[in-house]
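A reminder before we start the practical. When you read a complex entry, don't treat the lines as separate problems. The point of joint prediction is that each chain is placed relative to the others, so the output describes one connected object in space. Small molecules and nucleic acid strands, if listed, are placed in the same frame. In the example below there are two entries. Take a minute to note the order of the lines before looking further.
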Amino acid sequence: MNQVKYSELTFQAIVEATPNAIVLVNKEGKIAYANHQTEILFGYDRIELIGRMVEILIPERYHKNHPQFRTMFFSSPETRTMGSGRELYAIRKDRTEFPVEVGLNPLVTVDVTMVLVSIIDISARKKAEERFRLVVESAPNAMILTNKEGKITLINNQTEKLFGYHRNELIGNKLELIIPTRFRGNHPHLRESFFSSPSVRSMGAGRELFALRKDGTEFPVEIGLNPIDTDEGTVVLASVIDITERKRHEAIVTLELKNKELEQFNYIASHDLQEPLRTVSNYIQILEEDFSEELSQEAKNHIRTIQRATSRMSTLIRYLLDFSRLGRDRKLVSIDCNEIVENVIADLNSLIQTTGTKIQVGNLPVINAYETELHQLFQNLINNAIKFRKKDTAPQITIGCENYNEHFEFYITDNGIGISEKHFDRIFQIFQRLNADREFEGYGIGLANCKKIAEMHGGKIWIESELGKGSTFKFSISNFQV
Amino acid sequence: MLVDDNSADNYYHERVIIKNDAADHVVIKESGLDALEYLESTIDPVNPLPDLIFLDINMPGMNGWEFLEEFKKLDKALQSKLIVIMLTTSVNPEDEALAKTYDILAEFKTKPLTKEMLEDILMKYYKHSDPRV
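Here is the predicted structure of the whole assembly.
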């Protein structure tokens, strides 16, 4: 008897000393004992609790099912936490609720089986969790919380937007879902090595990282990793930034730099090429002016040939420079193509008159384009259509345009000498000429310019032709929105 | 005064100047340093001070721009007696833009110097009186 009394006292002392609220409940659900912490936590005097049903401490909405759970527990009593996975709430005397974690310990004596219930107020933890969730939610980046097993436990709204998933589709799923297939194999291994020495760091230093959207498209990302210690062990908070725009910007900057370099090269090259050429032509002039009487007619003819070649080369170098500078400082503006073509026709008026050229212009659209360049494009093509005419046929030119929504396709058809198919590509290359004939003299720069102009408008240029049967030049221009 | 490392150009330009009776005397210097040295030691009539300098940009050692920087440090009175004209092969708009930032540069001209160019310059800065180039 003393022994029993002693152990009872010891038990009571321990229960009173624990920092948790502890309640002893019997099979019928009646409270047999409650410690001082319980009084503090629930606001009752323990006299008010002992002998009452335990439901007094539980919000009413759980009352209906609680007896059933209790019966289940007593049928196979074992130490465990209550309501695994569910959120548990308790209610105070003043009817306020608070979140709890509840541990159940069966207490088997000779007479009765009871359950020792230990109750921990988790309000503070819940609040911290909620704060954390809010911080994650309001982050400007996609944030993904993953546990050691690689399961997603929390995401924010940015993640839904970035990846195109609803959060229900991601939470609980493996992280590999949003990693491109080719990287999936190695990822568990990388994760393990991260968790073996977790530290704040960016992911995949030096490597290019990609993420996978629900629709299967990939995008480049930058990922920061933050290990967080929680009750469930270490988890990792990944912050994901879509760097598509940055990559694009970098590419543009690199391209601009390269263009600038090329332009500088062209200036220097053209300068260094022009200089000796100018010396030649200056000295030819000296010869002509100072030694005219001493030179034979034949020598003078040779000198003239040298002069012609020199000035042609000078022109070529200038065209090369112009070609490289084409579209420099360009700006898209709204242009009525009818007006542009009208202006070009006015510019070419004397050529049109002397050759008896007839030009038919369809209804052309208003487009966003680079004005000077577009003018040059039409000018070159119309000029070519007249220039490469058949000997005894007056040029007939038709100009029109088809609107394909995404782009406009212009065409310029002539009844000229035509071009054999094998030369279709060559004619658009710089300084390439097909006709050695004097009457078609040129520098081989016009169509190369046209090609560059079409390309800078997001389009291309091509030809449909047959030797002796006229040509149709077609070019496309993107339907730019400004 | 012609400041240019290209002797062929110097010969040709001198010839154009003399032929068009644009100057009594042409001093030729093939580097910016030589030109500066000359300007610092001008004593009439041994080393007459030029009225007009045609300056090239691309020269080995001291280029045209560096010459201008040094030229700016010379006696202001001397500077004010001179007209400096850039005469270059460069068609680089960046060079032309840079030239505009120099108050002491009167003009930016592209080689070769021609009769018409000379006439314009004489008209504009000397009103027909013959300068010493």
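Discuss with your neighbour: Residues 7-19 of chain B form the longest helix (13 residues). What might explain this?
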